[in-house]
Write a structure and sequence with these properties.
Strand order of the largest sheet: 3-4-5-8-9-10-11
Strand content: 5-15%
Low-confidence stretches: 1-21, 23-30
CATH superfamily: NADP-dependent oxidoreductase domain
CATH topology: TIM Barrel
Number of strands: 11
Distance between the termini: 23 Å
Helix content: 25-40%
Number of domains: 1
Order of helices and strands: HHEEEHEHEEEHEHEHEHEHHHH
CATH architecture: Alpha-Beta Barrel
């Protein structure tokens, strides 16, 4: 019987071994049948190689993704441990806190280790806790980029994502502003969030797009067609809520596979995503170091074709 690595053994691994869990062979730019992806790394934009299991930093902020965390020192420890475990893709946004998340990342990790990709987003405002209002006006977005650079203590943001398309502003204008910032050397690559195939194609007429971040997990597959499009075009796909967010993921099939591998349903859900497509870049988030370690260990869990299909049904 295949078994995923136990937490006790995992925690005892060296930093180098932790990184090895996320490294390995790769098949970049190739189309695979669902459930057969085996590459451990992916090159965002063709030149930024990352381990495919990343980290979403949103949960490090206060309740309602608002304000500072109740235990700031713990948030810093989680970020440091994330990098120790070999994760080199961290996703954030200026709206998380707001501003708090980016400041925490800089506090914990600057000066940044070589190869660490910090992806941030702009274009979603926060009038209050639990409130999200898009703002795609060009001048606002340019200001967002400059402020994120300052908070993150970066000279250039390697992956800057339009957090939401503003229905009140033509996307050509919003992306035109980001294209200007890219030309100025402040952005390396541009991505989108919560978009359809048609919206991606429209955006690509304005500026090269290298990634898409939509909500997706084993029980929420609304964007299957977007993943297939991303795979065809070799665009990275960063699923948010990869293990269901606050509600989690639950099913008899998940329970059965988890039991067979002596793993948690969350580890199985992440393994399912990693095998779904070679362009899939899950970004599970947590403020708990144990959960972080368990999530990273999921990169080593391999589902059989039959198990993958049982979950995809």
């Amino acid at each position: 019987m295949n078994k995923t690595i136990t937490r006790r053994k995992f925690v005892g691994l060296s930093v180098a071994t932790g990184a090895t869990i996320l490294a390995g062979g790769k098949i970049l730019g190739s189309i695979s049948a669902p459930g057969t992806a085996t590459n451990a790394t992916f090159k965002i934009g063709g030149d930024l190689e990352v381990n495919r299991l990343g980290f979403g930093a949103m949960r490090l902020t206060g309740e309602g993704v608002w304000g500072w965390p109740p235990d700031r020192a713990n948030a810093v420890k989680v970020l440091k441990r994330t990098v120790e475990l070999g994760v080199n893709l961290i996703d954030t946004a200026d709206a998380y806190g707001p501003e708090v998340d980016e400041l925490l990342i800089a506090e914990a990790l600057h000066p940044y280790p070589k190869g660490l990709l910090i992806a941030t987003k702009g274009g979603n405002t926060r009038p209050g806790p639990g409130q999200w209002v898009p703002n795609g006006h060009p001048d606002y977005l340019k200001g967002c980029v400059d402020k994120s650079l300052k908070r993150l203590q970066l000279e250039r943001i390697d992956l800057y994502q339009l957090h939401r398309i503003d229905p009140k502003v033509p996307v050509e204008e919003s992306l035109g502003a980001l294209k200007e910032m890219q030309s100025a050397g402040k952005i390396r690559h541009i991505g989108l969030s919560e978009v359809s195939v048609a919206e991606i194609e429209r955006a690509r007429k304005v500026v090269p797009i290298v990634s898409v971040q939509n909500r997706y997990n084993v029980e929420d597959r609304k964007w299957d067609n977007v993943i297939d499009y991303c795979e065809k075009e070799n665009l990275g796909f960063l699923p948010w809520f990869p293990v269901g967010g606050g509600r989690g993921v639950k099913s008899a099939a998940l329970d059965a596979v988890a039991k067979a591998h002596n793993a948690s349903v969350y580890q199985v859900a992440l393994a399912w995503l990693l095998q779904r497509s070679p362009v899939m870049l899950p970004i599970p988030g947590t403020s708990n170091i144990k959960h972080l370690e368990d999530n990273v260990a999921a990169a080593k869990l391999k589902l059989t074709p039959e198990e993958w299909k049982s979950l995809a049904a």
